Amino acid sequence: MKLSDRFEPQVRAMVEFFQDQWFDQSRRVHTSGEVSLRAAGVDETAFHDSEAYQPARPAHIRAALHRIAVDDVSDYSYIDLGSGKGRSLFIAAERPFRRIIGVELSPRLHALALANTRTFRHWGSGSRAIVSLNMDATQFQFPDGRIVLYMFNPFGVATVRQVLYNLGLSLQRRPRHVVIVLLWPQWEGELAAIERVKLHHKTNEYQIFEVHRELASSS
Fold it and tell me: Which pLDDT tens digit goes with each residue over 179-219?
């Protein structure tokens, strides 16, 4: 084993640590650090279909949002299901989304997201319409307008299926363009439940799917 191979994981972890700290300090938020389900205050009955909080790297979120097939996001709502402390919301706020919505089951993580929203330092001319909701993602009603939906493996397959079923019903009621961004996806196959969904872009870190307005309207 090369000496560089031995130290590469430690160097990568150190770089990611400082990137996280820089993001938080420069935005006046605290989104770093993993949080267990118990520490997050999630009811034990929901443990089987929930995931502990682990923030995604800012660079990975930005890279995924950079590849969505939308030049002007001002007519789109950005939705993060399982938004935790709100990191992806604040990265989305670097762009002029119509509104930014986070949905988080944990009351403690939700409280931290609200605190972060109050202290968040906006950069540039991005969106300032950030809302965090403390609720079960299966109960969330998708807004009627165009959507960019982001998920970073926030829950198990049972919740994913219900969320996608709800999205499919919403698209049937009001056909429109929807972009679905999955970071480090574990259940991208479940998207087949949405009629006419198409893969737009795929890397090791993320996958981006679309439902086009004209395709949705013909379903």
Answer: 999 999 888 888 888 888 999 999 999 999 999 755 444 44
Spatial distance between the Cα atoms of 81 and 86, rounded to a whole number of angstroms: 10
Q: What angle do CA 40, 41, 43 make, to 5 degrees?
A: 125
User: Percent of the chain beyond pLDDT 90?
Assistant: 64
What DSSP character marks residue 59?
H
> Is the confidence at residue 29, as pLDDT, over 80?
yes
Q: DSSP for 58-95, please give it.
A: HHHHHHHHHTSS-S--TTEEEEEET-TTSHHHHHHTTS
Instruction: Note whether 188 and 197 are within 8 A (CB).
Output: no
Q: Are 61 and 77 in contact (CB under 8 A)?
A: no
- Helices 58-66, 3-27: axis angle to 10 degrees equals 80
Helix (H) or strand (E) holding 163: helix 157-173
Query: What residues does each domain of the chain span?
Result: 3-217
- Residue 40 tokens read as 């997050």
3-217: what CATH class?
alpha beta
Max intra-chain CA distance, the chain: 59
Dist CA 133 CA 104 (whole Å): 6
Q: Give Cα separations from 27 to 85, 89, 104, 108 (angstroms).
A: 13, 12, 21, 20
